[in-house]
Amino acid sequence: MNKLTPNGEETIVYEGKIFEIVKQPFKTGDKEVIFETARRSPGTRIIIVKNKKMLLTKEFRTEHKDYDYRLPGDKVFNTLEEYRKVLGKKDILPFAIKAAKKECLEETGIIANNLKLFQIAKAGATVEWDLFYFIVDDFKESKQKLESGEVIYPEWKTFNEVKELCLNNKINEDRTVGILLKFLLLNK
């Protein structure tokens, strides 16, 4: 079985505000193939739990033209330039932890005393957009510090209510649905 190995430097063929398209030649046997990847800064999602309840956020999402239940979280890096400086050179995890703590406070008013990495969810082979899922079960309550234009309502839900939201398409980020169902199965 032939193995794919990089055969040259990657080239950025398109750069937007949050996505870039990267091409890179790979060698497989005696052939060279070009792979394209869409790349975005990784994100964080925070599973905040207490007494068999989970804190979700309810926010209006323009892409759905409706409210969506979500886990709090955001990008690890605000720009592609920041992300590129770290990519392949440093461990992303410390940056993800810092970003998760910041978003936890901003979106929910929760000061996370400790974050535990639950899972890193990959988007797929041709889309590089990892989501770092953290569990927070040790925290202090404070006040939301929303950014301008954000309208986010934190709501505590029982584990059964979270499961129903997942199964009834009230949580529209499918990777999050999978992670939440896995979490709920492990924490019956």
Query: What number of structural domains do the residues give?
Result: 2
Largest sheet: 6 strands, mixed
> What is the H level of CATH, i.e. the homologous superfamily of the largest domain?
Nucleoside Triphosphate Pyrophosphohydrolase
Q: Give the overall pLDDT as a whole number.
A: 94
- By CATH, the topology of the largest domain is Nucleoside Triphosphate Pyrophosphohydrolase
- Shape descriptor: elongated
Approximately what portion of the residues adopt beta-strand conformation?
A: 35-45%
* Classification by helices and strands: alpha+beta
Percent of residues in helices comes to 10-25%
CATH top level class name of the largest domain: Alpha Beta
Count of alpha and pi helical runs = 4
- Return residue spans where pLDDT drops below 50 for at least 5 consecutive residues: none
Supply Rg.
19 Å
Distance between the termini: 42 Å
Give the SSE string: EEEEEEEHHEEEEHH
